[in-house]
Fold these 4 entries.
Entry 1:
Amino acid sequence: MTRFPQGFLWGASTSAHQTEGGNVTSDWWYLEHKPDTFCQEPSGDAVDSYHRWGEDMDLMAEAGLTDYRFSIEWARIEPIEGAFSLAALHHYRRMIEGALRRGLRPMITLHHFSNPLWFSARGSWNAPGAVDRFTRYVRNVLGILHGVGHVCTINEPNMVAAFRAIAERGPEALNDGIPEPDPDCAEALIEAHHQARRILNEACPDLQVGWSVAVQDFQVETDAEQEAAEYVRRRQTVFLEAARGDDWIGVQTYTRARLGAEAGQVVRRSPDASAERTLTGWEYYPAALGGAVRQAASAVGTVPVIVTENGVATGDDTRRIRYTHAALTALLEAMDDGIDVRGYFHWSLLDNYEWGSWEPTFGLVAVDRTTFVRSPKASLAWLGSVARSGRLPQAVDAATGAGEGS
Ligand code: IFM
């Protein structure tokens, strides 16, 4: 296959907390400001997308992208338990209408990491009643979803279920890949997803509902195959299997994870000393996307795959284009092998707040954090041209990152 199919979703993703700014009623805002925080920097005004979302959408539509995945912020919509903000709901409705007006199909994420502070204070997902609290929120947002094609209930539930370990150990907990998710939290998230799907499908039968899992390309380099499968199952497969019966499964992939064994325990191997690392410290390994969509497809059966995040933290935009070219090549190969992939969303549209730090830049667009002026990078035009033509250029020019041949 050299072309992507007609109707393929071509987009970029963002999340509310990472871009909007001033998310003061959220648990992340609290985490960023508490005295012993593991965050290096707070999100502050972020990149002011709460006010500048129109500029963000204009840039995407002008570049040739057709889809925009963004999240609506529970902490703004329900800042106090049971008190729903009509102004916040109207705000997100205006965003949905703004996207549709520009020819961008919105994919709405209902929960992208941040919670209302009150929800966390009550024990977050591990507390009795957590699922009911989430589904009450879902019922309250139904009214703004008309015209929306895709809803993602919860972003990266396998990361959410690992947050306690991350909060306790700090970001280095991620150096070893995804820490083991808390099983009770995982169970609550899966139940919340299933109930939300039912509510959404009943109220809006045309909506395509799914959730997005952090999927690493796990490469097993040990004979302890069963133990390795169990290691992957707890971190990834259970969340993928929970998507059986969904309209789509979101795959979010950045790198691979090589599994070995030490003293009878499955461990994640560090990248080789010669391996290139990105600004997040992860191995630069774009081909991971091919392995990840295959692993997801084998867990979910016939549910179509949408790549809802893929990208690279780098200060070198040529490297970003090369990474994306290689990732899309691996994606086409997987599609050639029969994997049903319906779309690709790049992470991220904007350089934004990377959960504790502003250092890792994932964006197709740079943002000056004092003036909030947006400066599109060459990678935005490059991805837009792939979207317009539905084809990958055969190669990437070494100097500029632009495509050569087609
Ligand atoms: O920035 C995050 C995003 O919020 C969830 N997926 C991974 C991205 C890069 O770390």
Entry 2:
Amino acid sequence: MTRYIFITGGVVSSLGKGLASAALGASLQARGFTVRLRKLDPYINVDPGTMSPYQHGEVYVTEDGAETDLDLGHYERFTGVSSRRSDNVTTGRIYSSVIARERRGDYLGGTVQVIPHITDAIKEFVQSDATEDFILVEIGGTVGDIESLPFLESIRQMGNELGDGRTMFLHLTLVPYISSAGELKTKPTQHSVKELQSLGIQPDILLCRCDREIPVNERRKIARFCNVREASVIPAYDVDNIYQVPISYHKYGLDNEVLHHFGLQAQDPDMGPWEDICDIIRNPEGEVTIGIVGKYIQLPDAYKSLTEALVHGGIANKVRVKIEWIASDDLEKTENVSERLSKLDAIMVPGGFGERGAEGKIAAARYARENKVPYFGICFGMQMAVLEAARNLAGITNASSSEFGPTEVPLVGLMTEWSKDGGRVERRSGEDDLGGTMRLGNYECKLVPGTHAREIYGSETVLERHRHRYEVNINFLEQLEQKGLKFSGLSPDGRLPEIVEYPDHPWFIGVQFHPELRSRPLDPHPLFVSYIKAAKERSRLV
Ligand code: GLN
């Protein structure tokens, strides 16, 4: 029997609802339950695939090739459960499915309305293939937004239909400290709960974000005014690292209250693995500085999974990872390159789109190759490393990517541009036209024996998640290998390069896929562990 926990947010946005949901998932797992997390996003885009990273942060890609909200990354990192296409839905997708049904005549001439048709579609989504003990459903946005009303109505209905034994409402709020008065204020929480109540939802648990201790009296007041048990007013204090959150929730009784609500008994949770991680984060043996050369550096959320994967690599090597953000445009001036890169322990060129800053990324790859600085190129970062090798090692000076416009030498291009038979057709098609041309989700990669990649992974094949339109042109393999760039991972049919490396470099690897998407604190990705190890070794040399 699956139980549903609905997580809403009030007062202001950015309280960390995604993290709160993920951490609660981890706490329930520590009690021995199985969990799955889902996210309902109120915006009208069908998925975030076409949204700018400035608007929406990173696009998180699932194994089955869905482009989803970055909160799904938090869910996976905290619970280790791989998300699926069916774990994230937007208003846009709900509406487009209802409208498609209407066009097919499925509603038999009836008037199609928000209630019941849209709300039924939402409820169907929330309950689809539910086999876990708990499904945690995060509702995007803040209570009071017009956009999220159909979602709130749907979860209200589910509460009514399934009853308290199978549903629970958790509301995340803010208890601000007003310095001029020297007081904590509970009124915003009271108002936010009233708003929820006016929609027919009575929260069962309140999780109150606060930057200082909330005294018992204040908690009692919140409980009384908001109609919840006093023990169910749980403080959510700021912590020094996100992996501390499950521990903190447990300390203040969140998982206990959830079990109390459902009338469940369970084993005491084992928080040991989280405590071990936090110990290392608090007392590292050293520090490494990684330079990330990118376009969206003002907005670290655009690289969320990447920075987390670096932290995981750091935990595995017992070092703190300090990130230096380097605007790729800056490296287009030659005099900047060595000045900006020479103090780093390793260089990272992450995924990216479009021509702007590409020359700076190529310069970073060249600097790393020539100066033997560890280099990790992900997706676009691999493509730029290959372009660098072609231009500066193989002398193909006009090599380019057709992503930057028409080129005589599409060293990187759409497969249809460089393959004689027009390429492969196995790509999964997304629902929108732009998404449909991308290689998305898990694809297999065969590792070449005797390479760094093969040794790091310790297996013959790997499954990794992809999100790109362009491919490195396999016809250049021989020419580049002769000059020292080894193609160490290929698609099973041998037609698409997946990994490149320099065998005689301490650590220089480019991958066409996104390994950061499957790195988890309790199960760090081997490439990140090995990369940070190389950075650590360099930090001791220089
Ligand atoms: N822009 C490149 C492509 O589409 C790389 C994409 C990426 O880095 N995710 O192939």
Entry 3:
Amino acid sequence: MPVKLAVIPVAGRGTRLVPLTKSLPKEMLPVGRKPVVQYVVEELNRCGLERLLFITGPTKAAIENYFDLDVELVNHLRETGKEELLLELAFEKADLQYFYTRQRRQLGLGHAVLCAESFVGKEPFAVALGDTILGINEKARVVERMIQVFEECGADAVIAFEETPLEETFRYGIAAPADLSNPEVFPLADIVEKPSPKEAPSQLAVASRYIFRPGIFEFLKKTKPGKNDEIQLTDAIQALIAAGGKVLGVKVAPHEHRFDIGNFESYFGAFLEFALADPDFGDSVREKMRALLHEEGSCR
Ligand code: UTP
């Protein structure tokens, strides 16, 4: 069965971005010209996914509104002679079906994925975290490669990984590859959640994209709440590997670099990179930044 369904968890509270996330979903934060989740949806569309199930929460209604057709705005732009702006709304017409369900208690990413169980049924499916952009300039196609590997190898799960600096391993799930003879696609012996640099089995960090068979739900159901009383997706993947499941890693390419919008430091960095890459305003932003850095330098 081909992979056509993607689950996009967007229900997390985003406490690391308080006060921004008090009423605004972090997945709706602007990065350059678009909200984070629009990049995610466009990436999945590019990779051949057709149905998107969002796992949402109480403060996330803005996401549903965003992907609706806004006929009133379209008419307004036409009537006021701003047709050129209609291009900015082209994403509304993408050949995608949107579905939404609520995670009624924020019990972690693993629990959010479990909320998709009855919708998923017997299909394999992708998971893409709604707060993470892959690549600048809309080029990332790692999910497409993951689906290919998943189908060709008959895997139980395929996970995207990106090389991370050793001092950053404590932020992510880290791969313990069973064999790295092919560094682009490799079997996993284990996956370790947020290890210290000393304990990290590699520098390959989970890059927020996954492909699963529905069998993962059985492992999620058996997963006990871990850190912060949350059900961790990594724990269920560990259990799947321990039970003999075939779990493969696929490495993201350098141009598919992960932008994590979950904390201020990486959010600010992502915004700057996207602003600098903007085809219309990149150059003026660059000039402004140079001037600011120059001023800062001369004040020291
Ligand atoms: P995070 O791990 O960043 O958790 O979520 P969080 O709760 O949103 O953020 P903090 O730690 O409070 O700052 C990664 C992705 O998983 C979703 C989030 O919306 C985000 O897209 N998620 C997380 C859920 O859908 N439900 C959860 O219970 C937790």
Entry 4:
Amino acid sequence: MSIHTVATQPIAGQKPGTSGLRKQTRVFQQPHFLENFIQSIWTGIGGVAGKTLVLGGDGRHFNAEAAQVVLRMAAASGAARVIVGRGALLSTPAASNLIRKRHADGGIILSASHNPGGPEGDFGVKYNTANGGPAPESVTEKIFAATKDITEYRIFETQNADLSALGEQTMGDMVIEVVDPVADYADLMASIFDFDALKALFASGFRMRFDAMHAITGPYAHAILEDTLGAEKGTVINGIPSTDFGNGHPDPNPIWAKPLMDEMMSEGAPDFGAASDGDGDRNMIVGKHQYVTPSDSLAVLAANATLVPAYSGGLKGVARSMPTSQAVDRVAASLGIDCFETPTGWKFFGNLLDAGRCTLCGEESAGTGSDHVREKDGLWAVLFWLNILAQKKISVKELMAQHWAEFGRNYYSRHDYEGVDAAAANALMDDLRARMATLPGTQVAGLTVKTADDFAYDDPIDGSRTEHQGIRIGFETGARLVLRLSGTGTVGATLRVYLETLETENLHMDAQEALAPVIAAAEALAGIREKTGRAEPDVIT
Ligand code: G1P
Ligand code: ZN
């Protein structure tokens, strides 16, 4: 075994986005692409010598090979120990938990989250810091800077490590510790929720369907829902992870989890349905004949948190990403707790959670989490809902009706225009930004603009400022429109249009109907059809 120093040169396009570096798999497989980025991570974090890292991924195509490269590069740069999930697998929340529990210095997560996998799909690499959360921008900027200066990388020349059996082995001076990917996470869930109440719920005949979408949560859901809590066999579907997610799109929303949606809207639907994404950090919640938007889910969890043992003392505060609906703001106001509005991406919640300023946080893109880890957590959200239902003993439909009656309903939808020409998408945003100051007071499609700004966030903990996080337009009626470009797409640009309107009387309308005036205003303000050349959105959630 020997350390090879390989000469290389910077490769363009290695700037981490909303959630790490995400590219088409075949881009990651180009010579030196992965190696350059990993060496740049080591540089950006001040080296790995003597450090302990956690490593795992969502099992997609190239996960196994990439994990071996990371191990060989960690060993070559002097890492002391790498804790790896068996088979190089770890859900994102399980990785976050392991980093925290084992007091590791950081971790590498191999995942492109909800993006499709396979040779024609996407791959990704994300670095998480010692708090278990995604590296903040101060760190990702250093990593990016290193990708632009790199001249060589170091890698061990050795055989692949055997990651199939639990236990320790060495690679040079570095210890590789293979751990069960599920066990520590399952223990954490048992310490948060009332597992006895959940067992009683399933024993009483409560029926559930969990769609793991052929992705990483299958083994976690089998172990927790079926084996531990006693949900009937078959509760978990698509529970065996595959490298291309069954050739599907592992994003838990009504579009990509349509078979689950269809079942939940059918006559004989189970009481409760849920799904998670490629790496297990997203969740979809759907009751019998009742879909719950992620924004509403966050509000419901906040309103009912004291029913869960870990949160029985109340919440320190809540946080949501800017485009997420303001439903949780109304709950926070009634609880008399802070509600923070952060830029899109989980990394912005870390400081607030670390400082004890908030307990729950969430995003409209099916992400919900708490201070138990520093990532969003799909199964955690599902167990939270089950814990609430076990205590309240009412259906999801009844729970939502009660919630809206108490707080009002923030009708919400996101319209995505995918793979748009990047120059056209940027021009649309620039044009709107240029006109922003003149908008307040004007009438658009029957709505009067009250406020318009380009969202900037001043982190209350470290004082850092993050600008250009999306254009926010508020109307006199309380309705809101947000436009921003995706930071996770891998082809062209994705324009996201977020639409919201508050209703305190008509609580059971179709969301697109309730939002029709805001949708018309978005078109009138931004000229989406003309500037993108698209007649309609590709995905409506
Ligand atoms: C998307 C979501 C965002 C989420 C991120 C990672 O980012 O919108 O809420 O944190 O994926 O899962 P975007 O593509 O919008 O930058
Ligand atoms: Zn994810």
